[in-house]
Specification:
The protein is mostly helical. The chain is built from 12 helices and no strands. It is elongated and about 160 Å long. It comes from Cruoricaptor ignavus.
Length: 357
């Protein structure tokens, strides 16, 4: 029986043998990949320098089959100029579109597919191209918290597909995608309104939530929107300026009654039930404030009227005094003028000369 030392030697030999075999396999794999890459590069470089359409197309199709999308696109771009006006053009254009799609250049892919469907409407692959155009617009739709122009474009493009191919077996999938994107727009509008509410901009929040309901009448967010509208109207009523307070209290109470009737069992109805007593108490308190304010206004008006009457009498008295003074001055001036005139018309006394004897 071999000793422990011999067994250890035997084990390490076997282990080193296996490690060596695995290392060799890895090396061979790496070398084969390197050789393949070198071969592809050589083929690509040669095709890019060539003017032979067959060489270029062959290389482009090889790059396409090996999923080297950027190389395939560069070659297809060259090939398209050489096969213009031939039957090969359609294949080049369609593969260009798919290469852009697989390379995740969705905007470019959508443009290529859309152009193909419009240029070759009678081609058996026109429907496929139109569908892929719509799908690429869908892929280009951004997250809900970003600009949704791309989402709106995607919905329009998918609706265009349904209009062109209403009986397509892909129509069901397109409708599901439209619903998904519509919800994204809906949720975007909902989140915008919710931001107004968080910032305490309750007037803007109320208007924005109502717009969501108008723009998306079938929204599944309706119960939540009802709740936010109720809370917004409550805050507006409780913290309103004097001139709008009565109107806003009535608006909030009216909405609370609406929710109790039309949103039973929801958080919105619960909120309405909790806030209605507070609104009624605020209505009563404000009625007293309004009555006191009106009385105060009446007193101020009476006081102002009395002050205006006194001021008016004072003005009239002053005016009368001024007129009297003017009259006196006028009479004095008339008397003086008469005296001056009389003095001017009286002849001077005769001169008496002494008489000589």
């Amino acid at each position: 029986m071999p000793g422990n030392h011999q067994l250890k030697n035997w084990y390490f030999c076997r282990l080193n043998g296996r490690v060596g075999q695995n290392s060799m396999k890895k090396i061979l794999y790496i070398l084969s990949i390197a050789a393949l890459l070198a071969s592809c590069k050589n083929q690509y470089d040669a095709a890019m320098k060539s003017t032979d359409k067959d060489v270029i197309l062959s290389a482009a199709n090889d790059m396409y089959s090996k999923k080297k999308w950027k190389e395939a696109l560069a070659l297809y771009e060259r090939a398209a100029k050489l096969v213009a006006g031939t039957d090969e053009l359609q294949e080049v254009l369609l593969k260009t579109a798919y290469a852009e799609y697989y390379d995740k250049n969705y905007k470019l892919a959508a443009s290529h597919f859309k152009r193909y469907a419009a240029t070759f409407p009678n081609d058996e692959r026109a429907e496929e191209a139109a569908y892929m155009a719509a799908l690429n617009y869908y892929q280009g739709s951004l997250q809900y918290n970003l600009d949704q122009t791309s989402t709106e474009s995607a919905i329009n493009e998918m609706q265009s597909f349904l209009n062109s191919y209403p009986d397509s077996e892909k129509a069901k999938n397109i409708n599901e995608l439209i619903e998904e994107l519509s919800y994204k727009l809906e949720y975007k509008a909902y989140e915008n309104a919710r931001q107004f509410f968080k910032m305490g901009e309750y007037k803007a929040a109320n208007a924005s939530f109502e717009n969501v309901l108008d723009d998306f009448p079938a929204t599944t967010l309706r119960p939540k929107i009802y709740d936010y509208i109720m809370k917004s109207r409550y805050e507006l009523a409780m913290n309103s300026i004097y001139s709008l307070k009565e109107e806003r209290i009535e608006n909030a109470l009216s909405y609370a009654r609406f929710l109790e009737k039309n949103a039973q069992g929801t958080d919105a109805a619960k909120t309405a039930a909790e806030q209605q007593p507070k609104l009624l108490a605020e209505k009563e308190r404000f009625a007293k404030v309004k009555a006191d304010t009106e009385k105060h206004k009446e007193k101020l008006a009476e006081k102002q009227k009395a002050e205006e009457a006194r001021a008016s009498a004072k003005r009239r008295k002053k005016l009368a005094e001024e007129e009297e003074n003017d009259l006196q001055k006028s009479l004095q001036q008339t008397d003086k003028a008469r005296i001056d005139s009389a003095e001017a018309s009286t002849p001077a006394p005769a001169i008496t000369l002494p008489v000589k004897n």
